[in-house]
Write a structure and sequence with these properties.
Layout (H helix, E strand, L loop, with lengths): L2 H10 L4 E6 L3 H12 L4 E4 L15 E2 L3 H5 L3 H17 L5 E8 L5 H16 L8 E3 L1 H7 L11 E8 L2 H14 L3 E3 L2 E9 L2 E9 L5 E11 L5 H8 L7 E12 L8 E4 L8 E6 L2 E5 L3 E2 L11 H14 L11 E10 L13 E5 L5 E5 L5 H15 L34 H10 L15 H10 L5 H8 L2 H4 L1 H19 L3 H15 L7
Length: about 525
């Protein structure tokens, strides 16, 4: 998947595309895969990197949503559980079965959460990942030995899915091209082409070369998540806002705070959200918060009170209280919640909705990673009907994602490459120096950066350290120290000079410092 080759396809394509998708996160990439696999000519434009925004900043769970079950949103939970099973089937190299312990400290929690999770099992049907069960205090501490034992009355074990969000996004972009579509990062939609008041294409700017293009299409899908209103306002400046953004943050700690394979789920925190402590890439992710925000930024910043909130709640349940000094990374993401009269964003549903403007712009709002495929199917169906495209059945329920390969070993740093792993091994066989780690504290090699440049449209040091590898999320300080070596490697592959190297290092350090605790 070479960007310059895809740009050449864009430049040589003379007829209108069937579908133009703007937005390279979960929903946009899903829509492009769906449309291309149906045989529609499809092109996707992402203004930054794939999954640069919300789609790389999730809790890394593929789940039905225990919170939505508590809220009584049975439809969303059923749909998400079905999609969880479909995603595990189609991307087995990225999605794994994760066991969760719900510790009980009050007498009523065992029967209450136990029965609720039995309903969760039943709703999963044949796509379930395992049966929930009641645990004794001893069994809970065996699975999660660093849980606070004082007052512990046992717990409940249940199963959900875990994945790597940004890596799934990269694999979906690769799947788009394999299905005959085009997916371009660093291409920004700056305006719409209109005829008689109807949208007939987009104006886009290549953020790397600066070149602008007019691209005609039968229909345009706006799948830009929290930036949906900005795109809708390009079409109609008077359009009322439709997104109510909520910020969630996560902190990353060393594995010693929660050794073992089980995750912890705390079903009710002070702000009403569920709190998770989840093993991921040999670290522990703890999150998430729920803070309504007014400003939508490409790089949202964790608030002091959000970090304190998570550290305080973690200390309530762990024998070793984590402090700011223990935090390896902090990442913040914005949820694209559909605007509602509900004042508390934790109560706003993650259901998706589709709206069509008078000019024909089709915007898909809301949703979450777990249901990305169903969202894509719904929006492509809507777009095809609106544009009078020939009817073609959706096939993504049974379409493997690029790299799909069953694995039982998720402990290595390269498991998520799936069928691409032998190619990376061949790079090292040809150039043994590429086996060198990027940093002693990181589980990544130079070969992974070379592969990212050659095959994964990796254009910046941030792309390499944040989304092709997950270094920035695992250990921000180590990622900053690895940046010069990564920039040198990338410059050789991209044929860039020393000025590019220095500019990339500076740009990355400016972003990465926000992932460190601010004392």
């Amino acid at each position: 998947m070479l960007r310059q080759e895809l740009v050449r396809i864009l430049e040589s394509h003379t007829s209108p595309w069937d579908l133009i998708v703007t937005g390279g996160g979960a929903t946009g990439l899903g829509a492009a895969v769906d449309a291309a696999s149906r045989g529609y000519s499809t092109i996707l434009f992402e203004q930054d990197d794939f999954a640069k925004g919300t789609s790389s900043r999730s809790t890394k769970l593929v789940h039905g949503g225990v919170r939505y079950l508590q809220q009584g949103n049975i439809k969303l939970v059923m749909e998400a559980l079905r999609e969880r099973g479909t995603l595990k089937k189609n991307a087995p190299h990225l999605v794994k079965n994760q066991s969760f312990v719900v510790p009980n400290y009050k007498w009523w929690e065992g029967p209450y959460y136990g029965l609720g999770l039995k309903v969760y099992d039943w709703m999963s049907g044949s796509l379930g990942l395992g049966t929930s069960e009641w645990l004794s205090t001893e069994e809970v501490l065996q699975l999660a030995p660093t849980l606070d034992a004082e007052g512990l009355r046992g717990g409940v074990l249940y199963h959900d899915g875990q994945f790597d969000d940004a890596r799934l996004a990269i694999n979906l972009a690769q799947t788009v091209t394999e299905q005959g579509g085009v997916a371009l990062n660093y291409f920004k939609v700056v305006g719409f082409l209109k005829m008689a008041g109807k949208i007939v294409g987009v104006q886009v700017r290549d953020q790397i070369s600066g070149k602008e293009y007019e691209v005609s299409g039968q229909v345009v899908i706006n799948a830009t998540g929290v930036f949906s209103d900005a795109v809708q306002h390009l079409d109609d400046p008077e359009k009322p806002v439709s997104i109510s953004p909520s910020q969630g943050i996560h902190i990353v700690l060393d594995k010693e705070f929660l050794p073992g394979d089980a995750a912890i789920m705390i079903p009710h925190t002070d702000d009403g959200r569920v709190l998770f402590a989840v093993p991921w890439h040999n670290k522990i992710i703890i999150g998430t918060t729920d803070t309504a925000v007014d400003t939508i930024e490409a790089e949202p910043l964790a608030l002091r009170e959000e970090v304190d909130f998570i550290l305080e709640h973690a200390a309530r349940y762990l024998t070793k209280d984590p402090s700011e000094a223990d935090v390896k990374s902090i990442f913040a993401g914005l949820r694209p919640l559909v605007k509602s009269s509900t004042k508390k964003t934790a109560e706003i549903s993650r259901d998706h909705s589709i709206i069509i403007s008078e000019s024909g712009l089709i915007s898909i709002l809301g949703g979450k990673w777990t249901t990305y495929r169903k969202m894509a199917e719904d929006v492509v169906n809507t777009a095809a009907i609106h544009a009078l495209l020939p009817y073609r059945e959706c096939i993504t329920k049974d379409l493997p994602v690029h790299g799909a390969q069953a694995t039982d070993d998720f402990s290595t740093s390269d498991y998520y490459y799936g069928t691409d792993k032998p190619s990376i091994d061949r790079l090292i066989a040809d150039r043994p120096e590429l086996a060198t780690p990027l940093h002693p504290a990181l589980p990544y090699t130079k070969a992974m950066v070379v592969w990212a440049v050659q095959q994964e449209m990796c254009m910046t040091v941030e792309d390499a350290l944040s989304r092709r590898t997950r270094a920035l999320l695992l250990d921000a300080k180590a990622a900053m120290e690895a940046a010069p070596a990564v920039a040198e490697l990338m410059a050789a592959g991209l044929q860039q000079d020393n000025d590019w190297v220095q500019n990339q290092i500076n740009a990355f350090q400016k972003v990465a410092v926000n992932y460190l605790p601010r004392r």
